[in-house]
Amino acid sequence: MSLNIVVGIATAGRPEILSQTLADLRRQSRIPDAVVVCAPSEADFGAAREIDPGAPARFLLGARGLTRQRNRIIDASPEADVMLFLDDDFLLDPGYVAAIEQAMTADPSIVVATGLVLADGINGPGLGFAEGLSVLSHPRRDRTAIEPVFSGYGCNMALRLAPMRAHRLAFDEVLPLYGWQEDVDLCRQLSPHGRIVQVDAAQGVHLGTKSGRNSGVRLGYSQIANPLYLARKKQGYPLGRALEHATRNMAANIARSLRPEPWVDRRGRLRGNVLALRDLLRGRMTPQQVLDL
């Protein structure tokens, strides 16, 4: 039994990399049934509208913000059984979609499937398109496990939509802009309804393109505010995990602020951390405060 699999991409400010990612989808051994791209403005699409991803493509305009754009994509895809959300800079091994379909068809209890990331440029200066393809030329065919994980990784995350529709679940639009931790939140919402797994045979590379990202101050604020907000929702995100996540990020920002990496605004992030703690003490810390920074 086959599944209707739609690839969803929320994008903003990166039309060139979006075009490359869409064109690369043609390499899939199992072409997705459709591709839906959502951006805040026509300028964000650039030449991507002219790209053939190998499947019918739809381009939508939606309010800026990852959570809003992803919800818009889901609402516009009533035919989809599975929504495979990709960042606009995530490249897939040719067998990726086929591996996701095989896993989710064989085990209907899987509600979220995330792939094995062979390289992640988000942890460094970022990878170029050619570098990503080079990594994908050496896939890990020895990795075939399907194992439970706490959360899918938002840059490549396949969602079974039936339980989301049945229980009226969605990405939390209180998390603005880049939606820091939105992937964890949705996975915890879905966790009572099935399994969340990593499918090692579904492999890819996250380029971690730095253009179009949030300011360091805003990201730093979100590093504190978003995990604590999610813990207060009491939907399976433990307070201890939220505190550990927030303190680990703040500690890294403190340690590296004197000699920051060229590609990371450590001082901006640290300032955002401090502003969030100030608002926490004043009782007014919310994720949406970043919109005023």
Mean pLDDT: 95
Helix amount? 25-40%
Enumerate the spans where pLDDT stays under 50 for 5 or more consecutive residues: none
| Total domain modules | 2
Would you mind describing this structure in some detail?
This protein is an alpha/beta fold and 293 residues long. It has two domains: 5-206, Spore Coat Polysaccharide Biosynthesis Protein SpsA, Chain A; 216-292, no CATH class. Helix content is 36%, strand content 19%. Strands 1, 2, 3, 4, 5, 6, 7, 8 and 9 form a nine-stranded mixed β-sheet that branches. α1 links the parallel β1 and β2. α7 (216-233) packs antiparallel against α8 (239-256), α7 (216-233) crosses α9 and α8 (239-256) packs across α9. The longest helix has 18 residues, at 216-233. The termini are far apart.
Outline the fold blueprint.
Layout: E1 5-10, H1 15-24, E2 34-39, E3 57-61, H2 66-75, E4 82-86, E5 90-92, H3 96-106, E6 110-120, H4 129-136, E7 146-148, E8 156-160, H5 161-166, H6 182-190, E9 195-206, H7 216-233, H8 239-256, H9 266-281
Parallel strand pairs: 1-2, 1-4, 2-3, 6-9
Antiparallel strand pairs: 4-8, 5-9, 6-8, 7-9
GO molecular function: transferase activity
Keywords: Transferase
Protein name: GT2 family glycosyltransferase
